[in-house]
Write a structure and sequence with these properties.
heterotrimer; A alpha/beta; B mainly alpha; C alpha+beta; A: alpha/beta; Rossmann fold; 2 domains; three-stranded parallel beta sheet; two-stranded antiparallel sheet; 36% helix; 13% strand; globular; C: alpha+beta; Beta Polymerase, domain 2; five-stranded mixed beta sheet; 5 strands; extended
């Protein structure tokens, strides 16, 4: 109850006036009701999507595993380890890994290093915009237990409290070879049908949301934005 | 031939074209990768990506037009295919070619773009309309030299049927339009760079260049439809140029070789040259290719 | 204008109250000045002594003495000389006169100092808007009385099992458990 109160106080304190419900008057004198949170975002909760029948799902999982589309979102110092993957030396394309510019088209989200609270907010929004079979790779020890920022006032410690993580890569920072190995183990996981993070997120949605809201004090967006 | 049998042959042709398109896309990407000293994707990667895209469990929709955008684009690609004779003289693979099919095909080229414009205009991205207007502006200027070249061909061969134009070029390499009407060929080949949209003219669809709407909005099944269409469209556009300028194809092997090299021409240029901005490419298409097209008409008309 | 740094300091001493003048290098001098004289001193340095480039504004938290030490670093781009003006202000309800009218970029430093240390600069543009932290509701995190470890443990779900060992002791106990006996 107390934390609930606290949360409400915070929401009042960090209210963004641009997101308030209001009436604007168009150049023609027409009155328009504007509710940015409703107009820009959709508030529906995520759904659990049942997998297809066993044989078909096995084939689809194989296809998904062999074409991993990675969201180009670098969060920490690990983001500098991702670009070499596309260059001649490491060349992740030959393993079916491709970089995509938009969360909607991607299936793999690499959290590349420490996540400050500010970045966590963006990362959650990006994660929720990705479509259902989606996988998360946590890169570096910062995502596992906070790493060298374990006692920092501004970086999270455990990534799996905020979004379901399929693979962790230990190291500070892991080299691109380690990321390639992570892709291989993620492929194995997907093919076995164990990588079901999106459904897990939908099932335990309230728990994840409570954790996220505990950290992000100025929560000025809907609970689920796609 | 009954209409049922005809449809079956058309579907067979579509199947071959689709798979060749996917394979060609992968081969081209591999070649581009080798230019950059990379290994590149596996040759069967497109067949893996398509099921992955089509089997996305959830998807976002912004409304009916957003949904119909990729459908229009696909119908544009399949529409071109339906009116395109594939093999010269073959009764099985001339599809629904008729006397004025080249005009219909020029129309269908724009049809898909317009469908995408309507679809992406309804999308959630605030810059969709900017991306769309950039794409349409470039494609409009691309069409101008191509249309001029086609008019030149119509004067030369006195027909608007692709089948007859291709048939008129049979009997030796010197009968190709490439040698009988080099000006029209040059104009069309230059405009072809814009149709296939490789560099220097791929700013329209470069997804991470600028948030531009369609390529970033569509995902999952929508993107799968767009990719399927892309595979069909690339081959069928190459078949169009093959029929008009390079003597058509007497069999499938010839078609595959010729379309590969026609498409490879644009890729070769794309690997070598950097990108143009939209205003640069619009001006570029209205300079040399346009003049070449007008000269081609004048030479044929005189 | 062809004065050396020593001559500059001498001329300054006649006008302002300078303490603890410490010449670190030939081109770097630290001077402690009074809080009331700082802004006029900065104005004088910019307009008359050709120290036109404002390098940065930083702060040190002397919690034992109950003061913040503000350091204004100025640079003379012609003679390549840096001069650092230190200024002690009270920690309680820390407040300082704003210098954003002298250099525009000072406003950004002051915004950061307000967020990280809670030092107020009345009149500085957007000084109370959040700068790096979004939605911070505790005491400013860089003040030394803020226990960052405790805050992190309370907020960020620490993973259990983190313990560190002294390598020497650990290996000694592991390899030679009987050595002490």
């Amino acid at each position: 109850m107390e934390s609930q109160n606290n949360n409400n106080n915070n929401q009042e304190k960090f209210r963004d006036p641009n997101l308030d419900k209001r009436t604007v008057i168009s150049p023609d004198g027409q009155q328009i009701e504007v509710d940015p949170l409703q107009d820009y975002f959709e508030q529906a909760r995520p759904q659990v999507h049942k997998p297809a029948s066993k044989v078909i799902e096995k084939f689809l999982n194989w296809a998904r595993a062999e074409s991993l589309w990675v969201l180009g979102f670098g969060t920490g110092c690990g983001s500098i380890e991702i670009p070499p993957l596309t260059t001649p030396r490491f060349d992740a394309y030959r393993f079916g890994v491709a970089m995509r510019p938009t969360p909607r088209q991607s299936s793999v989200f690499i959290i590349s290093g420490y996540l400050s609270v500010k970045t966590l907010k963006r990362a959650i929004r990006s994660y929720e915009q990705m479509q259902n079979p989606k996988y998360v790779i946590g890169l570096g020890s910062c995502t596992i237990n906070g790493g060298m920022y374990w006692d920092s006032y501004n970086t999270i410690n455990r990534l799996d409290y905020y979004m379901p993580v399929d693979n962790y890569v230990a190291g500070c920072m892991p080299r691109p070879e380690a990321i390639l190995a992570a892709f291989e183990s993620l492929k194995k996981r997907i093919k076995e049908g164990r990588a079901d993070g999106a459904n897990k997120y939908a099932e335990h949605f309230d728990w994840y949301k409570a954790n996220q809201k505990k950290v992000i004090k100025d929560w000025n967006m809907p609970d689920y934005n796609w | 031939m009954s209409i049922i049998a005809k449809l079956l042959w058309v579907l067979l042709g579509l199947f071959i074209i689709l798979n060749w398109g996917l394979l060609m896309g992968a081969l081209i990407r591999k070649i581009v990768a080798r230019v950059g000293k990379r290994v590149g994707i596996r040759w069967y990667q497109p067949w893996l990506s398509l099921p992955m895209l089509y089997s996305t469990r959830s998807s976002i929709s912004h409304g009916v037009m957003y949904y119909l955008g990729p459908v229009f684009r696909l119908s544009g690609g399949v529409g071109i295919f339906l009116f395109m004779p594939l093999i010269v003289g073959s009764p099985y693979f001339d599809n629904f070619s008729f006397a004025g099919d080249v005009v219909v095909i020029l129309y269908f080229q724009f049809f898909g773009m317009l469908g995408m414009a309507l679809g992406a205009g309804e999308g959630g991205h605030p810059y969709s309309t900017i991306g769309i207007s950039r794409g349409l502006a470039q494609f409009t200027t691309v069409e101008v030299p191509l249309t001029l070249a086609v008019i030149s061909l119509a004067i030369q061969y006195d027909t608007l049927s692709i089948k007859e134009i291709a048939a008129a070029q049979q009997g030796g390499i010197t009968n190709w339009t490439l040698f009988t009407n080099p000006l029209a060929t040059a104009a069309a080949l230059l405009s072809m760079l814009g149709i296939f949209r490789h560099a220097p003219f791929n700013l329209v669809q470069a997804p991470n260049e600028i948030p531009i709407g369609p390529p970033t909005e569509y995902h999952g099944t929508y993107l799968g439809v767009l990719r399927t269409n892309g595979a069909i469209l690339h081959v069928i556009e190459a078949v169009l140029f093959m029929n008009l300028f390079f003597g058509g194809a007497g069999n499938w092997i010839e078609l595959i070789i010729k379309t590969f090299f026609i498409y490879f021409f644009t890729v070769f240029i794309g690997v070598v040259f950097p990108r143009f901005r939209i205003e640069q490419s619009v001006v570029w298409f209205l300079k040399v290719p346009l003049v070449l097209g007008i000269l081609a008409i004048l030479f044929m008309a005189i | 204008m062809n004065t050396t740094i020593e001559e500059t300091l001498t001329s300054l001493e006649s006008r302002f109250e300078l303490k603890d003048i410490k010449q670190q290098r030939g081109d770097l001098v630290f001077v402690t000045v009074k809080k009331e004289q700082l802004i006029s001193l900065l104005t004088h340095m910019r307009d008359n002594e050709n120290f036109t480039h404002f390098v940065m504004l930083s702060v040190v938290d002397w919690i034992e003495d109950g003061v913040f030490q503000l350091s204004y670093i100025l640079n003379n781009p012609e003679k390549h000389v840096d001069i650092v003006f230190r200024c002690m202000i009270e920690r309680e309800n820390a407040s300082m006169e704003s210098a954003h009218h002298l250099w525009k970029q000072v406003a950004t430093y002051q915004r950061e100092l307000y967020e990280m240390y809670g030092i107020d600069f009345p009149g500085s543009p957007r000084v109370h808007e959040s700068f790096i932290l979004e939605g911070w509701d505790d005491i400013p995190p860089m003040r030394r009385e803020f226990d960052t470890k405790k805050y992190s443990e309370d907020t960020y779900f620490p993973r259990p099992g983190r313990e560190s060992k002294d390598p020497k002791e650990h290996m000694k106990n592991k390899l030679y458990p009987d050595a002490d006996k």
